[in-house]
């Protein structure tokens, strides 16, 4: 993602919050609070994804902590929020944040519980009103939630002509578990290290490509071991 702001508007809403570790989420919700709208540009942003599981986990851990911080700041003064954004927009902002927060913390755990219940037959044959309600809830989540996750992924693959890599979608359950773990660690970080910045290190892929190009050039030019024998 590559955010672009009008400088006068950016300054009017207070600029960056130096204490929020997910600054784009914070400024996005603050713009909405002040009545501004955001739009998505029909363009391509070339962004380097983390190239290792450790880097990916650190990035998602920071993002989750930033969502918690943004939610706390957003609702720190509820009356001010309702006055500035209105009831409808305040509700939409809150639901958007809570969906990210609660989804990351609880969704994979709920899926595990549902799987265990299905295997044990608990929800296939509800025995009381409580189990009827849970069975209905899980059914709606599965019927509505799974397509909601898969459809945008398929749509994005089609637009970028990447449908040939569709088998990677089978990794989504593992992805969700990693996000869940990052969200819980981020909750711990929120209390112990609230402003510590787990900065994503960029340029790894570019440096790797440069090293690969250098190695190829050396081999093609006859450098390497032969040079070491000459000067060794």
Structural class: mainly alpha
Note the beta-strand portion.
under 5%
Query: How widely separated are the two ends?
Result: 49 Å
Order of helices and strands: HHHHHHHH
Major sheet: none
Enumerate the spans where pLDDT stays under 50 for 5 or more consecutive residues.
Answer: 216-232
How many DSSP E strands? 0
The coarse overall form would be globular
The helical percent reads: 55-70%
Figure out the total of helices: 8
Layout of strands and helices, then pairs:
Blueprint (H helix, E strand, L loop, with lengths): L6 H6 L10 H11 L19 H22 L3 H43 L8 H31 L12 H21 L11 H18 L3 H7 L1
Helix pairs in contact: 2-3, 3-4, 3-6, 4-6
Essential attributes:
disordered C terminus; single chain; globular; 8 helices; 69% helix; 232 residues; mainly alpha
Structure in words:
With 232 residues, this protein is mainly alpha-helical. The chain is built from 8 helices and no strands. The protein starts with 6 loop residues before the first helix and ends with a helix.
Briefly say what this structure is.
This protein has 232 residues and is mainly alpha-helical. Helices cover 69% and strands 0% of the residues.
């Amino acid at each position: 993602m590559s955010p672009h702001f009008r400088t006068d508007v950016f300054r009017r809403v207070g600029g960056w919050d130096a204490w929020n570790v997910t600054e784009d989420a914070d400024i996005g919700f603050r713009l909405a609070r002040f009545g501004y709208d955001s739009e998505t540009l029909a363009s391509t942003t070339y962004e380097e994804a983390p190239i290792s599981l450790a880097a990916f986990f650190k990035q998602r851990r920071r993002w989750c902590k930033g969502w918690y911080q943004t939610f706390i700041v957003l609702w720190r003064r509820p009356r001010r929020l309702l006055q500035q954004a209105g009831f409808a927009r305040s509700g939409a902002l809150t639901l958007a944040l809570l969906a990210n927060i609660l989804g990351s913390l609880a969704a994979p755990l709920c899926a595990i519980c549902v799987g265990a219940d299905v295997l044990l037959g608990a929800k296939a044959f509800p025995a009381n009103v409580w189990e009827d309600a849970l069975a209905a809830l899980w059914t709606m989540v599965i019927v509505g939630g799974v397509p909601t996750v898969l459809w945008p992924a398929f749509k994005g693959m089609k637009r970028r002509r990447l449908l040939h890599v569709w088998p990677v979608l089978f990794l989504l359950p593992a992805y969700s578990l990693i996000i869940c773990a990052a969200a819980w660690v981020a909750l711990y970080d929120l209390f112990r290290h609230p402003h510590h910045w787990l900065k994503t290190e960029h340029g790894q892929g570019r440096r790797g490509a440069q090293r690969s190009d250098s190695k190829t050039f050396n081999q093609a030019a006859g450098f390497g071991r032969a040079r070491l024998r000459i000067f060794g």
